[in-house]
Amino acid sequence: EKELAKQVVNNVYKFLRDEGFEQPVICDSSNGYHLLYRQAMLNNEKNAETMKNFLQVLDLYFSTEKVKVDCSTFNASRICKLYGAVSRKGSNTKERPQRESKILRVPKDIKVTPNEYFEKVASFLPVQEKRDRTNYYSGTSNFDLDEFLQRHNIKVRNKVETREYTKYVLEQCPFNPAHTAPDSAVFKMR
User: What region does 133 belong to: left with phi over 0, alpha with psi -120 to 50, or beta?
Assistant: First the structure.
């Protein structure tokens, strides 16, 4: 499980790096990983919504059946990990050992990532489109995505279902064959 979490955090790191984010402090939470980005947002409702949407985008893009991006940390009043402490949640077993959390890497300069970068990623969150009666597939309640994918011979490698969305990871993008799993996906929102 921890190796799977490492793969997910590496993918999130690369994505945010490519979006222009500054270097994060990278931590081992004892049962997963944290990327800590310095930001300068005021603690207000608008920015809380931006951070909530930002984390939901990361969840949508990178969570798997076994590894989830924690979306609850948008709330500024949440407690955070005290690195160096041992995780004592649950029993200490061979399969799930209680480990010490730690800071893995600190950049030489911890720079502020501008608010616009968080806002840009947050804007990737899909929003419900207005119903367009000229488009058969837009807003119709009887549209069956599974049937559509099957009818058009679009191969699905795996399906990740949550309360908010279902993510269909495609074997290959129908528009660009160079895009393959896990970088090609279709999302069905709640």
Answer: alpha
